[in-house]
Amino acid sequence: MHNILFSNKELIILGEIKLASPTEGKLGKPEDIEGRALAYEQAGVDIISVITEHTRFSGDTSFVPRIQKVTSMPILQKDFVMDVKQIYESKSLGVDALLLIASIVDTPTLKKFTALCKKLEIEPVVEVNDENDLKKALSTSTSCIAINARDLRTFKVDVDRACQIMEKIPDRYIKLGFSGIHTSVEVKKYRNAGAKGVLVGTALMKTENIDTFVQELRNP
Predict the structure, then answer these.
(1) What CATH number is given for 8-218 in this structure?
(2) Quick check: helix, strand or coil at residue 58?
(3) What tens digit of pLDDT does each residue of 85-105 get?
(4) Would you kindly state where each structural domain of the chain is located, as residue ranges?
(5) Is the pLDDT of residue 24 over 80?
(6) Is the CB of residue 126 less than 8 Å from the CB of residue 107?
(7) Pick from 93, 27, 99: which is nearest to 62 by CA?
(8) What are phi and psi of 120, to 5 degrees?
(9) 50 in Cβ contact with 63 (< 8 Å)
(10) Measured between alpha carbons, how far is 85 from 168 in angstroms, rounded to an integer?
């Protein structure tokens, strides 16, 4: 994961596997996970993002080893990390990176979680939504900050606002754009704001032609 994030590749695409969301409802079936992971790899996706949170996203940690059986692609695990036990579980699963959401924990906890990830050789990806979150992220040891265009409290998506926040991140960080990507238009906005990579979730889960869609995002 670390090597891919810091590679010279012009655009890193993180393809997300999520079976449901609070705003979209059901998006996929558990039995389709392996096939989707393979389809992402064949389409040229660089990193697989998998949501393991069960209550709101119908995820499960068992998805990780299932993906690992069919592909060697790096895996970013997304969950609502509130306890160090979850980080140790992520280590046991062998994920390459773990999402840490700045808005759901205080600054000392976020710093502790980030440091533990580094110690366990998991790449911590700190997600922020506003300037307060960004301050918290900048106080940690993370190398990667993701801007989520979706406000987790209201579910409103605003890519332009996300890009404004992204522009305030120092260049020493790897910057990722999360949420709100439906076409190459949003990808360009994130790229212009300094994003090294973008995460595509709902639109990728819904598309009927994964290969074409990924190529359009990468080469509009």
Answers:
(1) 3.20.20.70
(2) coil
(3) 999 999 999 999 999 999 999
(4) 8-218
(5) no
(6) no
(7) 93
(8) -90, 5
(9) yes
(10) 32
Give the separation between CA 192 and CA 171, rounded to whole angstroms.
13
CB 13 within 8 A of CB 20: no
**In a 10 Å sphere around its CB, with 0-12 CB exposed, 13-18 middle and 19+ buried, how is residue 126 labelled?**
buried
Q: What share of the chain is helix, strand, coil (3-state, %, to 5)?
A: 40, 20, 40
pTM over 0.90: yes
pLDDT in tens, 114-130: 999 999 999 999 999 99
Q: What is the pLDDT of residue 151?
A: 77
- Residues 1, 31: Cα–Cα separation, whole Å: 26
Burial 80-89 (b: 16+ CB within 10 A, else e): bbeeeebbeb
Per-residue pLDDT band for 203 (boundaries 50, 70, 90) equals confident
**Which letter does DSSP use for residue 220 in this model?**
-
